[in-house]
Design a protein that fits this description.
This protein is of the alpha/beta class and 455 residues long. Helices cover 33% and strands 24% of the residues. The mean pLDDT is 95.
Amino acid sequence: MKIEQVKEVYFLGIGGIGMSALARYFMSKDIPVSGYDRTPSSLTNALIKEGAIINFEDDIDHIPISILNNKDSLFIYTPAIPVENKIYLHLLDLQKKLYKRSEILGLLSKKYKTIGIAGTHGKTTISSITAHLFNKSPMGCLAFLGGITKNYNSNLISHPNSPWMVVEADEYDRSFLTLFPEIALISSMDADHLDIYGNQENLIRAFQQFVQQRSKNGHLIYKHNLATYFSSLSSTFSYDMEDEKADFYATNIHLKNNQYHFNLSHPNGLIKDLNFPMAGKINLENAVAACSIAIISGIDEAHIRQGLNSFLGIKRRMELILKNKNIIYYDDYAHHPKEINASIDSLQQLYPDKELSLIFQPHLYSRTQDFAADFAKSLSKAHRIILLDIYPAREKPIDGVSSESIRLLMLNKNAKTIKKEELIKELKNNKPELLLSLGAGDIDRFVEPIKLAFL
């Protein structure tokens, strides 16, 4: 496949956050884009406005004839597409070559100095901050992101001339092994995607393989607590929020008007009095990670300062939705117990005098089965918890696995499981003063209704 020869592109699962970024890339090159997704969403609506042709019926008659007849057409699919999908099966019957999103990213990355940001948590935030730092400097970059950045209102950031590409190196399905980065960053390697890896040891081995794929003289940056796995390798740096044993860390951290101010210590000195507006200490650590990439890449202090200060955040990453005299409402993508811990801790640090109410939609039956006890422990830290039904994504139900199986393990008895259609009524009855919605499924569709209910 030669990307430069592509004349049309068809996406199976175009509404996914990663797929939509690729769709936007091809549209930015004036290449016609069409595709299928199961349901409309804010992302598919935006893509249609930008020129994509999208169908929501699993019907082969909706595949554009021009795509099928053009030998330079490209077909991209997501592994989340069910194997019984009619369009998927039809394209296979026609012997069309179907590429995974990760394969196309791998092909594109060969033309750039690639920064691959990997980790079971934090990669979207680190990637988004990194891309913004680059684009606030003369260096610029092309970036494929796993979230919608508020500065650009997109998950794609383009630059006409930059040799740099920032991409999330996704561990799911070993997708990141298509990348051979100039700079690799590892934020975490906690047990996850055990439906793919079987155990954490296999997942760690995949991360180690990814790191070994760095280009000649390429750099590795890792979270300091992962030193056991990476410190013996050449050209490595570590980062941490405030551990002075790391190469990059923050000092003099303090909150002012709910924004973080800090100094950044790095191997060549200290950058004083940086300002970072995004809520949550975990996001301050993500900012340190992004700054480490920027400094190693040659971005100067002035542009780092300007970039951090002007970063507006990412939709669904500790996003403040509403703040009035009755309620403070945040929404976050957290869907792993460690992420939930970080989200809850962040809000309780910001608002220590308020009782936190939480809505959680578990993502995947397999993940719920693997981490039910850990979910119960993390969620119990909130004052009141509402559990929605599991969002299955690509999975079939597993007997005995449900949101109720989490609730039964919780020490906090202020928890209940409800149906999605009962959510707004439940919230109105409880009148929460501090509210956080969490999950990686379709819980985002309730953000606007919740907001409207408390305006």
